[in-house]
Every structure is written in C-alpha cells, then in structure tokens.
Design brief:
Largest sheet of chain B: 7 strands, mixed
Oligomer: heterodimer
Strand content of chain A: over 45%
Helix content of chain A: under 10%
Shape of chain B: globular
Helix content of chain B: under 10%
Largest sheet of chain A: 6 strands, mixed
Shape of chain A: globular
Largest interface: A-B, 21 and 27 residues
Chain lengths: 107, 112
C-alpha cells in the first residue's frame, strides 16, 4: 500500500463549482500534512498546511480526519486559474507525496 | 529575497556519463531533498540531508549520490547515467522536520 494515496482524476468541473479531493495516508503516527499545487510540471508550490483538524484560506479548506486517516481539500467557487494538479503530502522525516489529483475548471 | 535555485535547467547527456545537478538555497535551511518526477509516479524521494555531512537514502536512491559539505548546497550526482534516469528533478529545502518545503524550478534531464 502506498503511504499517501490520491484519486488521480481528472476532475472536470465548471467555473463556480465546489470540488473536493480526498487523500488517505497509511502511517497513523504522521503529524503534519500539506496540500501543494503544481502547474504543468513546474515546481510544486505550497497551498496549505494542515497540522491539526483543519485549515481555511479564502476559498480553500483543508480538513484532517485522524481516525479515518484521510485529508481533504475543498475548493469553493472554482476559478479557471485553479486548474492544476493538487498534491497531498505527508510530512515526517522527508515529505512523502501522493501522485496528485488533476483539476480542470471549464468555462 | 531568499531562494532555492537549480542548475542547469535542462541537460542532455549520454548513457554512461557522470552528471551532477546543482541545488543552492539561501534560506539557511538545515533540510534539503532531491526528488524525481515521472508521469504516473508523482514525486519520489531520491536522497535527503538534515545538515552538513548528513545524507540519507530515499525511495529511489540507486544510481544516485549526494554530499553535503555546507548548508547551502546539495549536489546530486548520477554516477553513470542511464536512460531510466531521464526525468524532471526537483530540489527542495525546509527549516525543520514536519514543516513545509520550498522547491527549486526543476532540472529536466534527458539521457540518450
């Protein structure tokens, strides 16, 4: 079993839609998680950190469910500029990445 | 502004040659990492370092080596390049364990 697993998508949604991604992790001792965004094989960029039960930043909300060992990312009011690959990341000794979920927001 | 830079950005090399990819950060971060990214595999950890003279193997370390002689640099060496090492390589750094990392712009390596 992979340490971090994500649905690869793609998720195709219209502008203005709400979309949610889930990510599961295998190590119950993991303490920190992150969501990164990556555009067209450019470098990943930090979107949000998730250290406790969740985090919210504008249209983006991340939640952590330790009992079920998953992290979610909710994007409200999707914009065309949100089209990217979203990487779920577990932070321990080194960051462990999921394979990413591709989002395509359509006009 | 502090940053992390990789060089070269693009490189084509021949099978069997030794290749070194450079990574330099100016944040004074203790932790540095090398990842490779291939279609269908996401980012996979090659090697990482928690400080000067410390190096550790990651998930896909065979055929690669690193050395950490100072805080700012973690060069990645391919001892004898193979076509299977054609990939995009990302370097990253972080201040502490369990914290977010910041990435360089990547090096696209082609082994022919």
């Amino acid at each position: 079993r992979k340490e971090v697993e994500q649905d690869p998508g793609p998720f195709n949604v219209p502008e203005g839609a709400t979309v949610a991604f889930n990510c599961t992790y295998s190590n119950s001792a993991s303490q920190s998680f992150f969501w990164y965004r990556q555009d067209c094989r450019k470098e990943p960029k930090l979107l949000m950190s998730v250290y406790s039960s969740g985090n919210e930043d504008g249209r983006f909300t991340a939640q952590l469910n330790r009992a079920s060992q998953y992290i979610s990312l909710l994007i409200r009011d999707s914009k065309l500029s949100d089209s990217a690959t979203y990487l779920c990341v577990e932070g321990r000794r080194a960051l462990t990445f999921g394979s990413g979920t591709r989002l395509q927001v359509q006009p | 502004d502090a940053e992390i830079t990789q060089s070269p950005r693009h490189k084509i090399t021949e099978t069997g040659r030794q290749v070194t990819l450079a990574c330099h950060q100016t944040w004074n971060h203790n932790n540095m990492f090398w990842y490779r990214q291939d279609l269908g595999h996401g980012l996979r950890l090659i090697h990482y370092s928690y400080g000067v003279h410390d190096t550790n193997k990651g998930e896909v370390s065979d055929g690669y080596s690193v050395s950490r002689s100072n805080t700012e640099d973690l060069p990645l060496t391919l001892e004898s390049a193979a076509s299977s090492q054609t990939s995009v390589y990302f370097c990253a750094s972080s201040g502490q364990s369990n914290t977010e990392a910041f990435f360089g712009q990547g090096t696209r390596l082609t082994v022919v």
